[in-house]
Write a structure and sequence with these properties.
alpha+beta, about 130 residues, globular, 5-stranded antiparallel beta sheet
Length: about 130
């Protein structure tokens, strides 16, 4: 092939490379879509660890030197995908504890009422991406 033939073939080779890359990306996306559909059709129940992780940023509800939670332990009192309500015990670095009745919303936000108290917390977010 002469020099002119090589120069004329360059754009065709570039277009072919782009087409192959697009085909590979499209095939990979189909696999991701199948995994997404499987998670939607057969979600796993929400676990206590998911709720506990979502409450880790909850600040101490009282005191002048509010600290973040040090440890969270939750258990479900319900059924269904969100398993509402949840009873959680939050332990703070100050040594104080708070017991909460937590109700999750479909978007991952939550409302938590202090058990034995009058306050409540509205917060965000519990990762519900793999839960039903």
């Amino acid at each position: 092939m002469n020099r002119r033939g090589v120069i004329e073939a360059l754009p065709l080779g570039g277009a072919l490379a782009v087409a192959v890359a697009v085909a590979i990306t499209a095939l990979a996306a189909v696999g991701g879509q199948e995994a997404f559909l499987e998670a939607q059709l057969h979600p796993r129940p929400l676990r206590a660890a998911d709720v506990e992780r979502g409450l880790l940023g909850t600040p101490e509800p009282y005191g002048s030197h509010r600290r973040n939670v040090d440890h969270v332990a939750c258990r479900s009192d319900g059924s269904g995908g969100l398993r509402n309500p949840w009873r959680c015990r939050l332990s703070y670095r100050s040594g104080r504890e708070a017991r909460l009745l937590v109700t999750l919303r479909a978007d991952g936000s939550f409302v938590a009422k202090h058990l034995g108290g009058s306050g409540s917390i509205v917060g965000c977010c519990v990762d519900l991406s793999r839960a039903g």
